[in-house]
Write a structure and sequence with these properties.
Elements: E1 8-12, E2 16-22, E3 31-38, H1 44-47, H2 71-92, E4 99-103, H3 105-114, H4 117-122, E5 123-128, H5 136-145
Parallel strand pairs: 1-4, 4-5
Antiparallel strand pairs: 1-2, 2-3
Helix pairs in contact: 2-3
């Protein structure tokens, strides 16, 4: 895939946001970090203090137990919403013309629900892959080698 100059690339999962910009050419992309943010999100078990509750009328341990909130996943989803809000704000301020999103599949699902029309209009490609721990030069190589299916 060609990465046009000044294209914005969001690399995200439920804990980390990395916004890159192609400051090079389409033939020789040079991705530079435009913004980065990471949240601390302990495992769900470390965020809970009480045992799982039970529904009224249950008669023994483990019977008819109520569904339990996953605080870790809730925090990851909120962080994905935050990433979408950042993109929406930048798009509304004409901060980019083209956008590529690389996100963990669950994060990508949350992002898609929150894209503003201006973000959707500038979206060139989405990649469902967690690359937040990948060095920037490898992300550039990965995108350059990526063949997108025609839409």
């Amino acid at each position: 895939m060609k990465i046009e100059p000044d294209t914005l690339i969001l690399v995200a999962d439920g804990r980390k946001i990395l916004i890159l910009r192609n400051s090079g050419t389409a033939g020789e992309p040079a991705l530079t970090v435009d913004y980065g943010e990471e949240q601390s999100n302990p495992a769900d078990r470390d965020q809970k203090s009480d045992a799982q509750g039970q529904r009224p009328g249950s008669f023994g341990p483990g019977q008819a137990s109520a569904g339990e909130a996953d605080y870790h996943q809730q925090a990851e989803d909120r962080f994905a919403v935050h990433a979408a809000d950042l993109l929406n704000k930048r798009a509304l301020q004409n901060g980019f013309e083209r956008l590529i999103v690389i996100a963990a599949p669950a994060t990508l699902g949350v992002l898609r629900q929150r894209y503003h029309g201006e973000v959707k209009a500038r979206l060139v490609a989405e990649v469902a892959k967690d690359m937040t721990g990948t060095p920037v030069d490898r992300i550039a190589r990965y995108l350059a080698e990526l063949e997108l299916a025609p839409s």
